[in-house]
Amino acid sequence: MDILKSRFLPLIALVASVLFLYFRTPTFNKSIDGECSLLTHDHYWIVSKRVVTPRGVSPGAVEVKSGHINTVKEGEYHKLLLQNEHVLDYGGAVVMPGLIDVHAHLDEPGREEWEGFSTGTKAAAAGGITTLIDMPLNSFPSTVSEETLKLKLEAAKKKLYVDVGFWGGLVPENAFDPSALDKLLKAGALGLKSFMCPSGINDFPMTNSTHIKEGLKVLAKYKRPLLVHAEVVLESESHIALDSDESDPRSYATYLKTRPPSWEEAAIRELKDASEETRVGGNAEGAHVHIVHLADSRTSLDLIKEAKHGGSSLTVETCPHYLAFSAEEIPDGDTRFKCAPPIRDEANRQRLWEALLEGHIDMLSSDHSPCTPDLKLFDEGDFLRAWGGISSLQFVLPITWSYGKAYGITFNQLASWWSERPAKLAGQTNKGAIKREMDADFVVWMPEVEFELDENYDIYHKHRNISAYLGQRISGKVLATFVRGNLVYSEGKHASAACGAPILAKQ
Ligand SMILES: NC(=O)N[C@H]1NC(=O)NC1=O
Ligand SMILES: [Zn+2]
Ligand SMILES: [Zn+2]
Predict the structure, then answer these.
(1) Domain range annotation of the chain
(2) What pLDDT shows up at residue 32?
(3) Neighbours of 334 (CB within 10 A)
(4) Where is the Amidohydrolase-related domain (predicted)?
């Protein structure tokens, strides 16, 4: 018996290790072929003349195996490829890391008539976004506790066409309750978000500096960021604006006056101080504060530069609508353009581009914040009462490209603003670049192809007529989107099942 055992031992070990390797290999794609992916295999090569890696843009071949990037080969890829392997040859199209949108409102559960996990993530997939991080407000209830995060996860089940993470909310109710915040963060919220002015949603009340400082203490322990809507209501200034002669609510100039840049400036000053106060003990950088949708490119931006220069852990995003539009051109009564902070003048728009190119603005996000068409009050065109929020999720890549071309932007800059830095903010170390061992998340697109966002264009947002981009002629057509190796969108078609994953922060 002992002899038998020793003789067969190597064979038994071999069989055991083959079985172990087989079952250890993720079977995600294999078991659900044809549903999660428009491909039928999970080991293949993507080749193109323009592959965007951290080293630059070059012809290349990317080997995808079981949802990950296995190899990246640069150079004349046709010579590198072996015969009989699955090859997706995208010719001259650009292969870039999938976009990561750190700021989207998907509004489910509770306001699925505004948007939803299914419609929102279908639009994301069609736009080359492979991960998005959902905001804690506009859904009902807001994501402000472990329980409400669980409701989000429940509502998202089987509806995600791309990967989706969640920000939790910092509100007065939980700000002084570190154990509640602990639970929310332990349950997987990637960070917290708060408002320094009314949010437009009653169940998501604003926070003051004291709340923010309390939140930052807890977040610092987890090394996760606080995202802040940085506008503080300076009562005196809003009254001056509304009492003035120019108070036609259909005029964008009226709205602009009600939310001056000084509101952003005051908020950013408070945030700078709050983040500096957290730089104590061994925590030289302090808690991470991320300013969402910066619109003012003057004093607010100078304050941000100052804080960064002083070593604060501060990052900032702006959105395509601040880079594409200027206040002067917004037609009277066209409330599709209403957002907060408001879109400012043309000189401001140009300075935002410069700040982005110079690295003072770190990244871009959509702030896709849709509503039902009735809330846009199209009949009245009242900028003061209409819902503030721009609907843009599906278009952010072509919009950034179309308006950025004039500034000479590169594909690597796009990848850094839309993938690399957002991945870092959201703590997703396995996403954001085309590199070995990263998740196989890609967008394949043709920058040169022009198209019009007209009535024939397939828009997957829940409501098409509220988007400020309708009617624009833009360039940059998304051909295909891959999420962890699954081809989830290809030339007008989505995979038949929604196999995106919820992303929860790791402990
Ligand atoms: N509640 C909400 O989504 N508000 C957003 N809309 C917008 O334009 N800015 C915001 O913060
Ligand atoms: Zn906001
Ligand atoms: Zn928002």
Answers:
(1) 97-432+449-471+492-503
(2) 42
(3) 17
(4) 94-488
